[in-house]
Amino acid sequence: MLYNTRRAQQRNTQTLAQIINQFKGEEGATKLKNLAKVYKEEALERQLIEEEIMSNDNYLNWLEGFTRTRLEFQSDSYYLEYSPTDQQGVNQLGYLYRGINKYARENGVYPVLHTQGSFYSLEHNGVGFEIGTKVCNGIISYYCKRTGRIDDNCISSAEVLPSRQQDTPKVLTKVN
User: Fold this and answer.
1) 83: which of 16, 77, 147, 168 lies 20 to 30 Å off by Cα?
2) Which of 16-30, 52-66, 78-92, 142-156 has the highest mean pLDDT?
3) Are 132 and 125 in contact (CB under 8 A)?
4) Residue 86 class from Cβ within 10 Å (0-12 exposed, 13-18 middle, 19+ buried)?
5) So where are the chain's domains?
């Protein structure tokens, strides 16, 4: 058994050395810059998707309709067949969770803990949802459960989505 562990460590060391060698020299520096550029572009794309989801209630309206027939689903439900629109919505559940989590951290709201993760209670158009994370075998997935119940700890979509917040009237003054 000890021999197998040492052998695995040697393979890992060799693999790491091969990876490091890929980025040596001028060609390696170019590869590294390209990887950094791709990472930065992907991070920007994720940020834009999250901002889009959190900027209006289109996603929550889709979620409300989708959960009429599926009371609960997870983002890693790859074995189920959905329409392209529904598959995109399922895949984007993590962006909604991160947006709610960001709002919660800024406003002192704590998630509800359960044995496999945590969730936030969210209310949208009078419908209650649990939006949360589950950890199974070391893999984090996002889940949504239509609960129908709305309690005191429920975050209203009007609080989370800036587009649903009431704007205070602006007073315009003419400057001479």
Assistant:
1) 147
2) 52-66
3) no
4) middle
5) 43-160
